[in-house]
Amino acid sequence: MSTVITFFVPGVAEGKAEPDTTRIPCKFCHGAPGNKQCPSCHGMGGWNRKYLNAKSKSLIAHIRSCFERKCPGHMPFTGPVRVSIVARFAPNKGDSKTKWLSEHLAMHETPYVKKPDADNIHKSLDALTGIAWHDDAQIFQTSVLKRYCLGNENPGTEIMIEHCPELIPQRGV
Ligand SMILES: [Zn+2]
To answer: Ion ligand 1 — residues with CB under 5 Å?
Structure first.
């Protein structure tokens, strides 16, 4: 049986910035990633794996807290995971200086073709490693849509996580 979790990260979608020198401990064991006793980080390569600047760190904390509020006590999924991201952006002054355009943007799904890049939004999923799933390698399909907010929608990022263990055959089942 597949399980679907959908949660929302309010605020302007940000891409994950280039890494620098802050060490991020394992969310589970609170130590250096690579602890062989830890179910979450045992396969990781130690501190060198993640160096993040303060902005990325607060982005990651924000995404994690939104997930944890929606799914308190969630145990990380094992096996196949599919992730769909919809990043919604409010029009800025330049986008909606004419009435017809702001009306159009509110009524029709319109691509958002400015920064951040879709792949940088995708990279912010690292925030959920060790919480929503154990390892990024479990994600077998992803999509990122960048578009303007429709109607009364708030800007932010909607993340849908589908856990699909049934897609991998089990012997004897
Ligand atoms: Zn750990």
So the answer is: 26, 28-29, 35, 38, 40-41
Instruction: For residues 97 and 63, give the distance between their C-alpha atoms in angstroms, rounded to a whole number.
Output: 32
Would the pTM count as exceeding 0.85?
Answer: no
Across 140-151, b (16+ Cβ under 10 Å) vs e yields eeeebebbbbee
Q: What is the pLDDT of residues 76-108, one digit of tens each?
A: 999 999 999 999 999 887 777 788 888 888 899
Q: State in Å: Cα 133 to ligand 1 middle.
A: 13
Q: How far is the CA of 60 from the centre of ligand 1 (A)?
A: 17
Fold for 3-17+78-167, please state it. Answer: 60s Ribosomal Protein L30; Chain: A; (3.30.1330)
- Ligand 1 center from residue 165 Cα (angstroms): 23
